[in-house]
UniProtKB/TrEMBL annotation, chain B:
<dbReference type="Pfam" id="PF02653">
    <property type="entry name" value="BPD_transp_2"/>
</dbReference>
<feature type="transmembrane region" description="Helical">
    <location>
        <begin position="63"/>
        <end position="85"/>
    </location>
</feature>
<dbReference type="InterPro" id="IPR043428">
    <property type="entry name" value="LivM-like"/>
</dbReference>
<feature type="transmembrane region" description="Helical">
    <location>
        <begin position="295"/>
        <end position="316"/>
    </location>
</feature>
<dbReference type="GO" id="GO:0005886">
    <property type="term" value="C:plasma membrane"/>
</dbReference>
<feature type="transmembrane region" description="Helical">
    <location>
        <begin position="6"/>
        <end position="31"/>
    </location>
</feature>
<protein>
    <submittedName>
        <fullName>Branched-chain amino acid ABC transporter permease</fullName>
    </submittedName>
</protein>
<dbReference type="GO" id="GO:0015658">
    <property type="term" value="F:branched-chain amino acid transmembrane transporter activity"/>
</dbReference>
<keyword id="KW-0472">Membrane</keyword>
<feature type="transmembrane region" description="Helical">
    <location>
        <begin position="154"/>
        <end position="175"/>
    </location>
</feature>
<feature type="transmembrane region" description="Helical">
    <location>
        <begin position="38"/>
        <end position="57"/>
    </location>
</feature>
<keyword id="KW-1133">Transmembrane helix</keyword>
<keyword id="KW-0812">Transmembrane</keyword>
<keyword id="KW-1003">Cell membrane</keyword>
<feature type="transmembrane region" description="Helical">
    <location>
        <begin position="241"/>
        <end position="274"/>
    </location>
</feature>
<dbReference type="InterPro" id="IPR001851">
    <property type="entry name" value="ABC_transp_permease"/>
</dbReference>
<feature type="transmembrane region" description="Helical">
    <location>
        <begin position="92"/>
        <end position="110"/>
    </location>
</feature>
């Protein structure tokens, strides 16, 4: 009786353990705050001997001076984001700031207007600017300040904005998660190569919409058709023969990891390591609903996600083939015995799952924003977390799990530093497995 | 084409400290996956804890070597408990997802700028070897024979690394023929049968997770001793590489991980060297040097797929003892 053993009986003890780890994390940050330790750290950076510059921590730096009327301003928060990297810093007594970045790419530099003195705002060019590296290892970003009345964003407004943003993220995660969950339900495979299906969709739009300069909607449709073809051929070339061969589930999972690695670096081989933008990805967020500012891309993205999710729900609940899918998911031998062509259902699930993943990749390219060779792998674990949260193998559980993960990731940026925003969602995954291992909508028998 | 240099660089990998570190990490996975049937995809996390658990006390607090190693061990045991408590009662793929997620959490925590003063964030830490190097018996200078010419530092790390690997291999061999090893192998074959014999399966699995994780932790220390430690070493691909090594050598064998690591690194070095030189010589006009470097990852991915399907027992494994849970 495996199922009865999953109920945690010593939850108090486990909480104590978690508290202990939290405490040790706090001690760590305590060490971080001590200035003596900081001095030790700066003398021991790996590049210290190679480049005798003031800030030797990184190869490339973005810097600038924040001044108002010639007066330097101290303690202004500047953050850099882009190419999958995030960091922030504060200006020193002379108004100087420096942020190191790992590679030459285009970054968004944001000055946090809340940290400026009262009555001072960023006058021209906006509080967010692009920093692009030229021939040198440094790039300077200037903000033009002046007197003015600032529209301050209250905590509540930020909260609302984050919730909307989290819903948007959750919906695009859900597209990928439902595909992953359907594939898991029908074949038992934890498909790590799903990340590459996500990346593939975005890369195809990049190829057709930017490189070949086709109209965007044709590029998107082409990308989805090619995603379907990829899903079809993956099942035809790899997974169906392996199922026939009777290869075990763990072996299949490792094959999918190998496939993921091979595909990911094939993408990098052809597209390089840089981040490209899709047309319209950098539109301003100028549509306002009360406190919430959105760009029309955000609106279209959420609308498309909702429509597609409704269509998937209709497909699963109302169509014959959808019912067959659920039957195979439930018990494939029984489904086969009652006359369902299991291989055909699985093939359809692969095609549908790949199209959904491709679409999710396109929306993710607009949400990040940017297209890069490993963009799918960056959210793969969040997709897995969503699927596990909702209950492995349940399509609607995946939807619920995705929304929770999306909201959690976005809301956590209100408290956590932005380069740690994925940490919260993954910690939640571990906590859920502690207390409700079958997931929110899962059934207990699936976990044994 | 300079074949001498290509072969020379490849042969260096036979005994390099990196090869030893990967062999030890793979030996840890052999305990997890090959002998107990646990799907640990967070070996990179254990290695990260070893590396930073050693580097941070050595550099920031000036602790002696033994205290640094002890810190690594404690961190690794706690990590194993956190991973194991929620997942070891569940089906195998839950452990896989949770371990890979937890390893990523660790990597992100060590990458964030928030703790930069302790972890060095994305640039990591270096020059933490002083405490160990004061025991270096090798006189200064560069020496060796054939292609194996290193300086005294590398020789020292190399000898330590292979001694640790040898000790770990002997220990694994002894423990796997002990009653403990037989129970653990029984769990891999049929968990319910072992439970029916009155064994506490959960506890055995946890011990196995901790033991294999400790091997990963030592591997992490050995891996970063000859270099600086940066969090980007410990990406999920590191775990996948270690899996490739394990599957290549044979999952449920003692020498498999070691042989696998040697074969893996020699072949990989030979292949990268060959492709890089071929690009240089203009044999592959459609490819740049950077692309040549990426080709190796594609190759590893394809190798993992082919080995798992066509040679699941690896080089040294026994076909009867297929280490795959059905």
């Amino acid at each position: 009786m495996e199922s009865t053993r999953t109920v945690p009986t010593h939850s108090a003890g486990r909480w104590l353990l978690f508290l202990g780890i939290l405490l040790s994390a706090l001690t760590l940050s305590g060490i971080a705050a001590s200035p003596a330790m900081a001095e030790d750290g700066s003398t021991a950076t790996p590049t210290a001997s190679a480049t005798p510059t003031e800030e030797p921590e990184y190869d490339f730096t973005i810097k600038g001076i924040v001044k108002n009327d010639g007066e330097p301003i101290e303690g202004v928060t500047i953050s850099v984001e882009g190419n999958g990297f995030q960091a922030d810093t504060e200006t020193d007594a002379e108004g100087r700031w420096t942020i190191g970045v790992p590679e030459k790419a285009t970054y968004k530099v944001t000055l946090d207007e809340d940290t400026l003195p009262k009555g001072v705002i960023v006058k021209e060019g906006g509080a967010t600017r692009d920093a692009e590296f030229g021939q040198t290892k440094n790039v300077t970003v200037a903000f033009f300040l002046g007197e003015g009345v600032r529209v301050t964003v209250s905590f509540f407004d930020q909260l609302v904005q984050r919730i909307v943003s989290g819903l948007n993220f959750g919906l695009l995660l859900a597209l990928a998660a439902i595909g992953l969950s359907l594939i898991f339900g029908t074949t038992g495979l934890s498909n790590f190569a799903h990340a590459e299906l996500i990346t593939f969709g975005a890369l195809m739009v990049l190829t057709f919409g930017v490189t070949l300069d086709w109209p965007l909607w044709i590029a998107i449709i082409t990308s989805l058709v090619l995603s379907a073809a990829l899903g079809w051929s993956l099942d035809a070339v790899i997974w169906k023969p392996l199922r026939r061969k009777g290869v075990g589930l763990v072996q299949l999972m490792i094959v999918s990891i190998g496939l993921s690695l091979a595909l990911r670096y094939t993408f990098q081989l052809f597209y390089g390591g840089s981040t490209e933008q899709l047309p319209g990805a950098t539109l301003p967020s100028d549509i306002r609903f009360g406190a919430v500012a959105l760009s029309w891309v955000d609106l279209v993205s959420m609308g498309v996600s909702i429509l597609v999710l409704l269509a998937v729900a209709f497909f699963l609940l109302r169509t014959r083939i959808g019912k067959a899918t659920r039957a195979v998911s439930d018990n494939s031998s029984l489904a086969a015995a009652s006359g369902i062509d299991v291989d055909r259902v699985i093939r359809i699930v692969w095609v549908v799952g790949s199209v959904l993943a491709g679409l999710s990749g396109i929306l993710w390219a607009y949400f990040r924003p940017g297209v890069s060779w490993d963009m799918g792998f960056q959210i793969l674990l969040l997709v897995f977390a969503a699927v596990t949260l909702g209950g492995l193998g349940t399509a609607f559980g995946a939807l619920v799990g995705s929304l929770i993960v999306g909201l959690f990731v976005e809301l956590s940026t209100l408290w956590l530093p932005s380069d740690m925003k994925y940490v919260g969602a993954l910690v939640i995954l571990i906590l859920v497995l502690l207390f409700r291992p079958q997931g929110i909508l899962g059934r207990r028998e699936r976990i044994g | 084409m300079d074949w001498g240099a290509i072969f020379g660089n490849a042969v260096v990998e036979l005994i390099s400290p990196t090869t030893a570190a990967y062999a030890l990490a793979a030996l840890g996975l052999a305990i997890h996956f090959g002998y107990t049937g646990l799907l640990n995809f967070g070996q990179a996390g254990f290695m990260l804890l070893g590396a930073y658990g050693y580097a941070i006390p050595a550099l920031k607090l000036g602790w002696p070597v033994w205290a640094c190693v002890l810190t690594s061990i404690v961190a690794s045991v706690i990590f194993a408990l956190i991973l194991g408590i929620p997942t070891l009662r569940l089906r195998a793929d839950y452990l896989a997802i949770v371990t890979i997620a937890a390893a990523e959490v660790l990597r992100l925590v060590f990458t964030t700028n928030t703790f930069q003063d302790v972890t060095g964030s994305a640039n990591g830490l270096s020059e933490y070897q002083a405490g160990l190097l004061q025991f270096n018996p090798f006189p200064p200078g560069r020496y060796g024979f054939g292609p194996w010419i290193f300086d005294n530092r590398v020789w020292f790390f190399l000898v330590i690394a292979w001694i640790v690997v040898a000790l770990a291999a002997v220990f694994t061999w002894l423990i796997m023929r002990s009653p403990w090893g037989r129970v653990v192998k029984g769990i891999r074959e049929d968990e319910d049968a072992v439970r029916a014999l009155g064994k506490n399966v959960y506890s055995y699995k946890m011990q196995s997770l901790i033991l294999g994780g400790l091997f990963g932790t030592f591997a992490g220390i050995l891996f970063v001793l000859p270099r600086a430690v940066v969090p980007s070493y410990f990406q999920p691909s590191l775990t996948f590489f270690v899996y490739a090594i394990l599957l290549l050598g044979g999952a449920a064998t003692i020498l498999g991980p070691i042989v696998g690591s040697i074969v893996f690194w020699v072949l990989l070095s030979f292949f990268s060297g060959f492709v890089a030189r071929a690009v240089e010589a203009g044999w592959l006009p459609f490819m740049t040097q950077v692309q040549a470097g990426q080709l190796r990852f594609i190759l590893v991915g394809i190798a993992i797929m082919l080995i798992v399907v066509f040679m699941p027992q690896g080089i040294l494994g026994n076909k009867k003892e297929l280490a795959f849970v059905k």
